[in-house]
């Protein structure tokens, strides 16, 4: 292995959040009647928080020994397997699955069935040197929303290579049945959130496959180590990262500038199938020996001196990617490096010609074989030596593919001066035929702002007849949504109820995508093809070499989607009209379509005519607040539901994000369009993260990175991020790779008791709004309002000695008030400017340092001077039904509660510390919440979860991109029966019902 290449096999520490694949705790104590600690007499019975016995959560599950009552609508796809063998399944994306509580628990703890430590191994495949099939394929991650770099698949019979793993890669591959479990190597063209945002989730998915899990080789420039260090914070001890970094070694202070580029490529993979080399691309400078060297090479580009001057001296602020304050004479920093990858396939040897061999006096036999192996032999009938060239047809050179990522103008300067690419240029003078290499295809990951420049276009033409595929964020690539199935569901929901499901933003981009270049501009460009979803370039067999569009999805048409829906469900026309009446008439519509349908599908309920409205909604406007459910699934992104993220739109006052799972930025862009999402990110005032599991925070770095870029020319404050302290370890480590421009606050400092003690020490006369109770997190003591006659109850939330109890019982970590209090003051100021009176975190029952949140709006004054209380939104995070949360949510305007499992899977919910649908509703009822929105559904329910309509009197099921304006809360439950109508013909297939085991 070359000296420039370092190989690191990193076993992530067990101190990380070991439950990121599946969170479990030691057996919990026996249940106690939770209803006894609640003051509200309307509590309808009790729900189970804990296992019924110390062994119930750890014993193996079997339908032969245990029976759960089925709901009438329970679907066959949600059944559990009887043993571990049946549980080892591979779904659409190749992820493993299991329903066994014990098996899941042990897997999460890094143990197999024999309690031996889990040891992920790299896949070992027997290579096929002949390789009858080989192609490149565009995996269109981020092309329609321009939030990440597209991924590229290099496919062989027995090997798979992926270049770049941006957010959404798993979701894209799930929809198109590309099995990520077959991937052997992942190569990063740059190490940043744009190219590697989907890597943590992918590694977690692979680690959950089978008994031992799978791992892959991850390759990148030397700053890859910073990304790996950051992932230690939340990837469990069961996962192992096989990382390989190359290029100059990075030190804490950065890398010394003015490095002379290496003249030799760095060979990463070299076997009988393919040779993959890396050419490190560092930002050039506009002065010194590099620019002098470049000036000597510009003659071959034949550019006017004015063009060279303009493009070689860019504005100072655009010189670097990550830090606009960098000095060009100082050091290179992590994130500055980019890579050009060259993939060379072995040549195809020519056919042996027996007639020529016979003419040269050879007899059929072993000498024929020797010649085919490249060895010379002596003629049997003549006194001559016969050489392979005498009897073999000319060999066909192996195809060559180049992947280029040139992110800035200064990288372009270095690219133009890179002598090591000389053998691949068609116009390089002085190359012997043996040294010249013909490039067949070049994938350009370079952004269009760089690739359209004359310097870049001239450089492209140096490769002769190579096929150029432009995959770098071009407007034409917006035409076809990447997630076609999800876009189809969104369009159908929009047709039925446009008030809660506004038209997705990408539809509005299609008109602007056409004609993105003028004819004169197009004539100046090198001939190329825009990348398309699933576009292929065949390398072998030789007869098929070239572009293949057979897998490219057709253009999604909104009118066709609507026509298809009306043909499939004719009742939807009347349903849409009836729903529209909710916004134009008082009460429930006089004429409804219920009688036209089976009573089992939709039934009118008396509660639909309820007119009780909380005081906070008096004179409310549509510009006050809107809740946008960007992601409503659990564990990992799926075909129809992204992972958790909730956008609280305060309109002119800014916005908040509650959790930020992978793909959050892409979802924002699908909801608001490209420009609208940028505006939303600019206006973010705070991001709150519930816990460290990957499905709740791995989209954070991408959001923060974009915000920094959007505001780099504007005076602004760092964004406030509130989360568990393990998240700070991740952000601190990741900050060495990219400047995230943020300020962190631990959730434990935003609990009611912490806020009261910290702020009163500094501002004894200040008034801070709190929920109407006090708490002691360590003992679980709850005190109700002064007027509440319920006696004080002391309860233990966790069994003695469990991880959760030891966490809350341990001595408090010292707090430096000089650090924390200024941040709390900043939080209070930011919230006040947004019209928020308080934001309070509430510990919940899921994993160590897991929280829910209570957001209370400031009071308003109506036209006659009457004081109107502010609305109150409560979000549960991931949790079992939790008394702390119930108390904190008293009188909530909206409770957004996780409902991972259907009611029949309560044991599964207990084993994984999640809630069932009915349990979530019970929490809302106990708290007296006005409206309940259920979210975070298991991916075993791909389109709509199982629920009992009898309990849904003030509840609605969330869907991705669902937008609930506070002015529309009164009609929210009325829409639910119609939503069920929309999915009345949906039945799970065996493929879609595969259980998903990942970070829940």
Enter the CATH topology name of the domain at 617-760 and 813-985. Answer: Metallo-beta-lactamase, Chain A
pLDDT averaged over residues: 76
Structural class: alpha/beta
> If helices are DSSP runs of H or I spanning 4 or more residues, what is the number of helices?
29
Read across the widest sheet, the strand sequence of neighbours is: 1-9-8-6-5-4-3-19-20
Radius of gyration: 31 Å
Helicity level: 10-25%
Strand content range: 15-25%
Give the uncertain stretches in residue-range form: 7-115, 314-330, 508-520, 586-611, 764-811, 987-1000
Q: Please outline the major beta sheet.
A: 9 strands, mixed
- The CATH class of the domain at 617-760 and 813-985 is identified as Alpha Beta
From the 3D coordinates, which CATH architecture of the domain at 617-760 and 813-985 would you assign? Answer: 4-Layer Sandwich
Give the strand tally.
38
The global form is elongated
The N- to C-terminal Cα distance equals: 39 Å
Q: Which descriptors would you attach to this protein?
A:
single chain; 1000 residues; alpha/beta; Metallo-beta-lactamase, Chain A; 9-stranded mixed β-sheet; 7-stranded mixed β-sheet; 17% strand; elongated; disordered C terminus
Spell out the blueprint of helices and strands:
Blueprint: E1 5-11, H1 84-87, H2 101-108, E2 121-122, E3 134-139, E4 151-156, E5 160-163, H3 169-175, E6 185-187, H4 193-196, H5 199-207, E7 214-215, E8 217-221, H6 224-231, E9 240-246, E10 266-270, E11 275-281, H7 289-295, H8 305-312, E12 338-344, H9 354-359, H10 366-372, E13 377-378, E14 385-386, H11 388-391, E15 400-404, H12 409-416, E16 441-444, H13 448-451, H14 454-461, E17 467-470, H15 484-496, H16 509-513, H17 519-524, E18 529-530, E19 536-540, E20 546-548, H18 558-568, H19 571-581, E21 626-631, E22 645-649, E23 655-660, H20 664-682, E24 684-688, H21 700-710, E25 719-723, H22 725-735, E26 742-746, H23 752-762, E27 774-776, E28 781-783, E29 793-794, H24 803-809, H25 817-833, E30 836-843, E31 851-857, E32 860-861, E33 867-868, E34 872-875, H26 883-888, E35 894-898, H27 906-912, H28 917-927, E36 931-935, E37 955-957, E38 962-965, H29 972-982
Parallel strand pairs: 2-7, 5-6, 6-8, 8-9, 15-16, 16-17, 17-18, 23-24, 24-25, 25-26, 34-35, 35-36, 36-37
Antiparallel strand pairs: 1-9, 3-4, 3-19, 4-5, 10-11, 11-12, 12-15, 13-14, 19-20, 21-22, 21-38, 22-23, 27-28, 28-29, 30-31, 31-34, 32-33
Helix pairs in contact: 6-22, 15-18, 19-29, 20-21, 23-25
């Amino acid at each position: 292995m070359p000296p420039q290449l370092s190989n690191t096999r990193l076993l992530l520490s067990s101190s990380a959040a070991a439950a990121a694949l599946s969170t479990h705790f030691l057996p919990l104590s026996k249940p106690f009647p939770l209803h006894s600690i609640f003051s509200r007499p309307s509590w309808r019975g009790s729900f189970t928080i804990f296992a019924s016995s110390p062994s119930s959560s750890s014993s193996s599950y079997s339908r032969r020994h245990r029976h759960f009552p089925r709901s009438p609508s329970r679907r066959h796809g949600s059944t559990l397997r009887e043993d571990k063998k049946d549980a080892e399944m591979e779904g659409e994306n190749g992820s493993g699955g299991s329903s066994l509580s014990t098996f899941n628990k042990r897997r999460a703890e890094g143990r197999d069935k024999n309690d031996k430590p889990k040891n992920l191994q790299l896949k070992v495949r027997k290579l096929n040197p002949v390789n009858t099939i080989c192609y490149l394929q565009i995996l269109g991650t981020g092309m329609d929303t321009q939030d990440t770099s597209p991924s590229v698949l290099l496919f062989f019979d027995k090997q798979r290579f992926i270049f770049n793993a941006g957010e959404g890669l798993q979701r894209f591959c799930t929809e198109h049945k590309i099995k990520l479990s077959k991937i052997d190597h992942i190569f990063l063209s740059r190490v940043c959130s744009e190219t590697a945002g989907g890597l943590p989730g992918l590694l977690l998915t692979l680690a959950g496959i089978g008994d031992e899990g799978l791992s892959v080789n991850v390759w990148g420039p030397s700053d890859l180590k910073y990304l790996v260090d950051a992932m230690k914070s939340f990837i469990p001890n069961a996962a192992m990262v096989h990382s390989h970094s190359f290029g100059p070694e990075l030190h804490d202070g950065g890398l010394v500038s003015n490095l002379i580029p290496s003249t030799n490529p760095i060979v990463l993979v070299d076997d009988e199938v393919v040779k993959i080399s890396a050419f490190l691309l560092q930002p050039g400078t506009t002065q010194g020996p590099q620019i002098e060297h470049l000036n000597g090479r510009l003659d071959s580009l034949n550019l006017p001196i004015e063009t060279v001057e303009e493009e070689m001296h860019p504005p100072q602020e655009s010189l670097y990617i990550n830090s606009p304050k960098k000095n060009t004479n100082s050091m290179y920093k992590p994130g500055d490096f980019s890579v050009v990858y060259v993939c060379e396939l072995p040549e195809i040897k020519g056919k042996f010609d027996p007639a020529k061999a016979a003419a040269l006096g050879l007899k059929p036999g072993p000498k024929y074989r020797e010649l085919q192996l490249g060895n010379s032999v002596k003629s049997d009938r003549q006194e001559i030596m016969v050489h392979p060239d005498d009897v073999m047809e000319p060999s066909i050179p192996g195809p060559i593919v180049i992947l280029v990522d040139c992110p800035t103008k200064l990288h372009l300067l270095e690219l133009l001066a890179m002598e090591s690419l000389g053998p691949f240029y068609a116009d390089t003078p002085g190359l012997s035929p043996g040294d010249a290499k013909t490039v067949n295809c070049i994938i350009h990951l370079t952004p269009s702002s760089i690739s359209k420049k004359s310097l870049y276009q001239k450089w492209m033409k140096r490769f002769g007849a190579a096929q150029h595929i432009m995959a770098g964020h071009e407007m034409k690539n917006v035409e076809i949504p990447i997630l076609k199935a999800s876009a189809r569901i969104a369009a159908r929901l929009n047709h039925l109820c446009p008030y809660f499901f506004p038209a997705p933003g990408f539809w509005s981009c299609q008109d602007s995508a056409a004609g993105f270049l003028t004819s004169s501009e197009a004539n100046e460009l090198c001939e190329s093809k825009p990348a398309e979803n699933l576009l292929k370039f065949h390398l072998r067999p030789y007869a098929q070499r070239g572009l293949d569009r057979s897998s490219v999805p057709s253009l999604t048409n909104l009118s066709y989607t609507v026509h298809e829906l009306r043909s499939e469900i004719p009742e939807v026309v009347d349903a849409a009209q009836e729903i529209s009446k909710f916004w134009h008439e008082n009460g429930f519509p006089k004429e409804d379509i219920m009688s036209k349908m089976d009573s089992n599908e939709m039934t009118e309920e008396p509660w639909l005519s309820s007119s009780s409205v909380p005081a906070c909604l008096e004179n409310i406007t549509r510009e006050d607040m809107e809740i946008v459910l960007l992601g409503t699934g659990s564990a990992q992104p799926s075909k129809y539901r992204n992972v958790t993220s909730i956008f609280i739109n305060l309109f002119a006052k800014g916005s908040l994000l509650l959790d930020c799972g992978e793909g959050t930025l892409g979802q924002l862009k699908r909801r608001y369009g490209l420009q609208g999402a940028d505006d939303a990110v600019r206006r973010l005032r705070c991001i709150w993260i519930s816990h460290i599991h990957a499905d709740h925070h791995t989209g954070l770095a991408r959001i923060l990175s974009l915000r920094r870029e959007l505001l780099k020319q504007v005076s602004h404050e760092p964004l406030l991020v509130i989360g568990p302290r393990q998240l700070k370890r991740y952000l601190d480590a990741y900050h060495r790779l990219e400047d995230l421009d943020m300020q962190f606050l631990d959730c434990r400092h935003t609990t009611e008791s912490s806020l009261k003690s910290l702020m009163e020490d500094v501002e004894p006369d200040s008034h801070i709004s709190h929920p109407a109770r006090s708490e002691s997190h360590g003992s679980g003591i709850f005190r109700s309002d002064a007027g509440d006659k319920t006696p004080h109850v002391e309860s233990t939330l966790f069994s003695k000695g469990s991880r959760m109890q030891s966490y809350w019982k341990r001595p408090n970590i010292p707090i430096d008030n000089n650090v924390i209090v200024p941040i709390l003051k900043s939080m209070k100021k930011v919230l006040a400017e947004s019209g928020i009176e308080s934001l309070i975190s509430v510990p919940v029952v899921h994993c160590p340092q897991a929280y829910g949140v209570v957001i209370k709006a400031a009071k308003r004054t109506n036209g006659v001077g009457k004081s109107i209380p502010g609305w109150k939104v409560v979000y549960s995070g991931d949790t079992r039904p939790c008394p702390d949360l119930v108390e904190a949510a008293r009188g909530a305007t909206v409770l957004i509660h996780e409902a991972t499992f259907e009611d029949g899977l309560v044991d599964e919910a207990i084993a994984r510390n999640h809630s069932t649908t009915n349990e979530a509703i019970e929490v809302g009822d106990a708290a007296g919440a006005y409206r309940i929105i259920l979210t975070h559904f298991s991916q075993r329910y791909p389109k709509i979860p199982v629920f009992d309509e009898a309990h849904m009197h003030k509840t609605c099921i969330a869907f991705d991109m669902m937008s609930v304006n506070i002015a529309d809360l009164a009609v929210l439950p009325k829409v639910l029966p119609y939503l069920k109508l929309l999915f009345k013909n949906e039945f799970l297939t065996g493929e879609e019902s595969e259980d998903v085991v990942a970070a829940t």
